[in-house]
Structures
1.
Amino acid sequence: MTAVTKTSVPAARGPMVEAWGIFRRSPSAMLGLALLAVVILMTFAGPFLYGVDPFEIVWAPLTPPGQEAAIPLGTDNLGRDILAGLIEGGSATLAVGFAAALITMLIGVMVGAYAGFYGGVVDDVLMRFTEFFQVLPPLLFAMVVVTLFQPTLVNVALAIGIVSWPQTARLTRSEFRRIRTLEYVSAMRAIGAGDSNIIWRVILPNALPPLIVSATLTIGMAILFEAGLSFLGLSDPNVMSWGLMIGSGREYLLDAWWVVTLPGAMIFLTVLGVSLVGDGLNDAFNPRLRER
Amino acid sequence: MYQRITKQLLYAVSLILAVLVLNFLLIQLAPGDPAEVIAGEMGGANAEVMAAIRAQYGLDKPLLTQLGLYLGHALQGDLGTSYFYNRPVVELILSRLGPTLLLVATALGFALIVGTRLGMLASRNPRGIASALVTVLSLIGYSAPVFWTGLMLVILFGATIPLFPIAGMIDVVKQGGPLVRALDIAHHLVLPALTLGLVYLAQYSRLTRASMLEVLGADYIRTARAKGVSERQVFNRHAFRNALLPVVTVAGMQFGAIISGAVLVETVFSWPGLGTLAFQSILARDYPTVLGILFFSTLIVIIANLLTDFVSRLLDPRLAGGR
């Protein structure tokens, strides 16, 4: 990292480099990045280092952490290895979280971009549509969708995406409304650039900073959604996830705190990491707001 | 003014109709026979019931006729029958609505009162202890899954310090008059409301702090100070009233999310509201009840939005004049 600071010549700095400079100096943002790095490392490298099947019964049920050297974090109510569950459970949660955030951004940016750029009737229709999705209680709607259709990971991600996009759409719309009146957009229009060219190549790149921040926070929200759905037992039952571990262990809560506490702590630390990074990005993109 | 209210009510009605159409589409799009979806897979779906449902909803007729029939039934207050509970869905839902509204209102009230106070306290000194507390609290409130926070409180108050009951709404063994009953419900309400409220307390305190800091920099605050208004008055009246506006707006917009949170919290604490009903009927594949709950909770959100709009206008008369 020290090498980077030495090579950064002021004249060559782009806005992203500058943002990274601010981001790097924020202890909380770096803590968030570190948390995320640990979670991702654990999820991807964990299975190779600790190759225990999370569904396999390995020891006596409800063995507390630290009692057996072979099972460092104890077992759940069926005698399954908690540590193996924590390692395996991350991949489903992270995959659904990222996929849902991607779907959210795709729908939200698309709707918001057209509404904000064209205004008028297009804006009215699209915004009415958005407002309709905003009155649906998100988790409840996702619960219904997942139940009526099959609770596969793809459907879970789709359901979360469908309930989360309105906020992104509103943000994109307001950014597009602001930017479309700026001079460089008029200049592009004057030299004969088409609408889609202006929307995707001119306005969108300039609207990116707040959208990146929003995408980060969306990932955190989607992870919480996935956890909630699988806690209720409405996610894919054949895939281990942190929420599922909490859901199946909650009846033994008072006898075995670790069964519920540990996977919950993983969710908490992951979302904390995501939101610290989001806050850090926000500050990095809006240096003037940092004083608040 | 009246024109505006009429317009808003019409808009609300159109949203309600849209939710019903959505429910209808969900029934149609779900894999399998719509009659089965309406009857619920685990209900007493014998041939007779199925035939009755087909006739009632005109399932052999064109799609638009079906939609018309569905809307007709719904607008007459008939959202179908739960074959799992053997009761009309509307009746079933109305019997569970009270506990959910009580939980949501208590949690929201707690979050608004404590959150705004905390945010104000923090805004007095942007680098002080209260500010740090608000930052930490809002991070925890945002990042911790609400059902997990609830379960952690269960461990704390169920095993370590048994101060509050951890499940249900009423102690059936307890005898006594209405006052005893009310106190008993309040006692049971503490943990669920605290769990749900903490999430929003975190958000509102952070929001209040940010908007107070912004408002305190405004010209009219300087004027107030210059003409000798006490610092206390400047804070509590001049600044707070304006700083409250974004909090009210956000609180109104989040109503759907709060109901979603209530579903999880109710499940954790076996609170006998719409959330536990939703959970149970989803497990039982009792689709009419599930869709009925979706409809009713959307209705609550729509009403809450109308109320928020009204409160914002009270807080800021400028909004009433324009647009």
2.
Amino acid sequence: MPVITDNIASLGYATPELVLAGFFLFILLADLVFTRNRGQMACTLAILGLAMTLLVTLRLYPAGERLLFAKMMAIDPFALFFKIFFVGSTAVIVLLSPATAYIPRTRQGEYYAFLLAITLGMSLLASAADLVMIVLALEMVSVTSYLLAGFMKEQAASAEAALKYAIYGAVATGTMVYGMSLLYGITGTTNLYEMPQAIARGGAAPLALFVAVLLVLVGFGYKIAAVPFHMWAPDVYEGAPTPVTALLSVGPKAAGFAVLIRFFYAALAVPAGPGRWNPVADIDWPLLVAVISAVTMTVGNLIAINQSNLKRLLAYSAIAHAGYILMGFVLLNGQGLYAMLFYLIVYAFMNLGAFLVVIALAGPLRSEELKDYAGLASRTAFPAVAMAVFLFSLTGIPPLAGFVGKFYLFAALIEAGRAWLWLAVVGVLNSVISLYYYARIVKAMFLEKGPSGRLTVASAHQVLIAALLIPTVLLGIYWAPVARFTDYSLRLLGPLAR
Amino acid sequence: MPMQNVLTWMIFAPVAGAAVVLLLPRGRDELVRWISLLATAVPLALAFWVYANFDRTSPGLQFVEHYAWIPAFNIEYFLGLDGVSAPMFLLTTLIAFLALVASWGIKEGVKGYFCLYLLLEAGMLGVFAALDFFLFFIFWEVSLLPMYFLIGIWGGPEREYAAIKFFLYTLFGSVLILLAMLALYFANEPHTFDMTKLIAANKQYGIAFQLLVFIALYIGFAIKVPVFPFHTWLPDAHVEAPTPISVILAGILLKMGPYGMLRVSWPMLPEALKVYAYPLAIFALINIVYGALVAMAQRDFKTLVAYSSISHMGFVLLGMCAIGPQGLSQAGVNGAILQMFNHGTVTAMLFLLVGVLYDRAHHRVIEDFGGLGVQMPVYAGVATVAFFAALGLPGLSSFISEALVLIGAFPAYRTLTIIAAVGIIITAGYWLWTLQRVFLGPLNPKYATLPEINGRELVTLVPLGALVLFLGVYPMPVLDLIRASADQLIALVGPLP
């Protein structure tokens, strides 16, 4: 992979980050200077910023793969895939925010600025190729997340969420940094791409290496909310303003997966042929992650069954989905990674969609409790039908996008042979369990009788729901273009793919 | 209309109907009904054309449509019919049409009901026509979702419980099918979902692989049949579902189970079938006897019919796994497929009849009736035909298929077949007893004003009754469809080692 050491020259390849940083500052300044319609202006600027980021990100595709800033950052189709992903998911959150009442009018400027800041952090994380860079980017995402989670600081739940989030985060990050220091001690380098050779050369003690891996996994596990590092998620998801919850369940989670993949596949695996890897120094981290995956989906799904608050229910569902996605991670082959990326795309559509319906209904319904969803289908049909589609897609029922995502994950597991059959069986059984609680929501909306009186959902939300609904259905029937894009994001992945 | 795509037209006519219904404004209920009727009439009309043009001498696939769908994963849009699928495919169009006529009385949420109903029909037709395993699976699942809502919204008092139970059971079955499907896909090089290729390669699957995959598939399909002990969703779902949906459920949906076995498990995993044949026959026998005994104990008319379905499906299973030293029994396989068809018509009649009575008396407790033969003579006449068909009276359709099954199974499993024949006596017992309790004896004065069966209800029942009578005398119109392909299936499975 060509290395660009010169910092000024590197800037030319960090344009998405530059644009995001620029608009972040711009929104903050504009918010100070202007006095009227500040929220509207900040929102417009945020959209503009995201659109420009998308544009410059797409323009980076011809650059191929490069290491920037003296190997601190990598730019490759894999990183670009995630940058587009983050811009897209943040854009949904920005677009849905104006029609809600979560954010105090006086502080809308900073809200949108923070949304760009967290996107910047996630963008850096997807590119981070050095331990130092990983820590910095991860902290940028985390600190912004704490601020966003506690944005409704006047409400006890929101403040509590932010505090819990911060304390858990501090512990997780501390543990991770400790693990990284061990890794540095073993290998003598902080660069991910130099680690396999360093480990092979140095003949590192497997136990020390294993402990280091375990500690680092705590930090990443926290970000993707994998069991047993998931404790923060339900409280934070419930307490945070719902648009922020929606973002947290998609953006930072995906960022966690991005760094997880790059870290393990670049630093702790050695290529063993086209699209195949072996764990470095025979450390069985795939099995470790496989157990985490199985436990994560099972715990997430089982606890979700009894939830009465929709945000909390979706929080546990998001935990379970982290478990599903991890199934692709343990295979040490291209198919597994492919399935993960593909799943992330469909997950973004259906999960954001489900949250969006909750947000859209929170206004007219004044509730996010399951019991208040009774008879919803007769009060406002379109959001109810859309919610049912999103939920059945999350369950993985064809012909919806979620099924195709799960299909790729299970296909990768089955192809890997008998060794991973147990994980596939755990995975499919979990799909069945998950149907029960997703169907509880559908049951409330369609099968139960509730209060009468029509509800009106903001037209902006209706349009957004439709915008997420169409891909959720369409990708279940014809997904070849997305499959090609995912494939491309992995195929050009120099050291990662070969 | 280009006839080389006749199957696609048949499958997607209901989908088009559903789309039109969805776009109609509120309150146009009558229009919704007529458009839906038209959308089910199109496949029915085309079914006659397919029936007339079906080459009865060819064991191979007919009306084939083959297009690439997702090339990266080698997924194809591949449809076709042969003797195994044609009877059920054609029957589906008929039952779906008649059950739609029976749906005329649905008053609430008309738009949603008919929309889901039409999607359900498309899913079922797709299952019987799909020859790409992936496509098969998609259709299999597409028939699941509408069913959940149709039972859950328009069902009886316990509908919520019944709907989710049905959904969970069948989803559990389908995920196992999904895993088995993937295992078969990767066992072939190049990887393929094409069922004809998966079958052609059946010699190269190792025995351990076959045994494992067979079990996963069997559980998946057995839940749909349902085979004891996976049957507990059925009485709930049947009893709570509205009448037309019970008709669809018992008439068509249950057949997807044995059809899946004949289409997938039997030809793809013949060695596993030979190992498991005897245990499978025992499960079939349990279905026959247990289903009949439980049916006899029922007080609710509809539950009785539901359990009788479990019993009758046992015959399908018994015929399918009748395997001797020469291989699968010809009479057994032909009988099993014919029994699928016949049970579809008979049980559809029975559920329609229960519905007619329930609409008038608003309950289904058998003991409360009595003497209705005097009050509703036409109804009693039609019901008698259906009852006698269900108990296997010679001269009516079920007799032939059940006799074929017993003839086929006898050389393979003597003891089991004798016990199964005893099951027929139990069946005769509970049907005659029901007949006596409902139609004979003194008329309960409460029902002295019960109106006779009306024209619309007769429209739904008479075609089925005519089929039952005709096929009881001359079954060749259906057997002719089946025979060549059944022979091919028997050859594919081969003799016992």
